[in-house]
Automatic annotation (TrEMBL):
It comes from Candidatus Fusicatenibacter merdavium. PANTHER family: ACREF/ENVCD OPERON REPRESSOR-RELATED, TETR-FAMILY TRANSCRIPTIONAL REGULATOR. InterPro entries: Homeodomain-like_sf, HTH-type_Tx_Regulator, HTH_TetR, TetR_C_Firmicutes. This is TetR/AcrR family transcriptional regulator. The keyword DNA-binding applies. Keywords: DNA-binding. One of its GO terms (molecular function) is DNA binding. Pfam families: TetR_C_8.
Length: 196
């Protein structure tokens, strides 16, 4: 039986997600249909709906899949301490975004928050809050304003980059991101082990 907990179910889901990613490379999101995905993945509509509520649900699950890929990239990186918010620390993320730019171009179109949800907790607890405290900011509400400023700027930089075909080299974009970080978040240079 093909249930949510067996490998066949997961393999079918992966095949449909791969079909969607391939279609996204050449088709505007508004023109993608369940029918096109099913034809490409060689499954029927009932199979699609056994896995996803609709195309938007599929995109959300695909974002989770790409997040896991990104986290594996960071986990595989050397575990030496590095300066937070360094240009080098942004490069794996930017390479990932460029590799899947067709997905992120759609995903960032209406984005109002940081695109990698798993990054919130560690970034808040290990970077934003301690840096704000070192700068004398004790109100978590005030800290949140700095965090929101960083998220919004970072997201809009990524959106512009993918909208322009990722033409600017990753290192240049990393430098721009680094220069746009609120001053309070990098007043004091600290070394910290951090992974998304």
């Amino acid at each position: 039986m093909n249930t949510k907990n067996n490998q066949r179910f997961r393999d079918t889901e992966i095949r449909m997600e791969a079909a969607m990613l391939d279609i996204m490379k050449h088709t505007e999101f508004e023109k993608i249909t369940v029918k096109k995905i099913c034809e490409k993945a060689q499954v029927n509509r009932s199979t699609f709906y056994a896995h996803f509520m609709d195309i938007y649900d599929m995109v959300d699950k695909m974002e989770d899949l790409l997040n896991a890929e990104l986290l594996e990239t960071y986990a595989a990186a050397p575990r030496e301490e590095h300066l937070i918010f360094s240009e080098e620390s942004f490069l794996p993320f930017l390479r990932h975004i460029k590799k899947h730019s067709y997905f992120y171009r759609i995903n960032l179109r209406h984005r109002k928050s940081f695109p990698i949800r798993q990054g919130y907790g560690p970034m808040w607890n290990e970077i934003i809050k301690p840096q704000c405290e070192k700068a004398g900011i004790t109100s978590e509400e005030d800290m949140m304003y700095y965090f929101i400023s960083f998220q919004a700027g970072f997201t809009m930089i990524l959106k512009h980059w993918v909208d322009t075909g990722c033409r600017k080299p990753e290192a240049d974009v990393a430098a721009i991101i680094r220069n746009c970080i609120p001053a309070v978040l990098h007043k004091e240079k600290i070394n910290i082990k951090y992974q998304l």
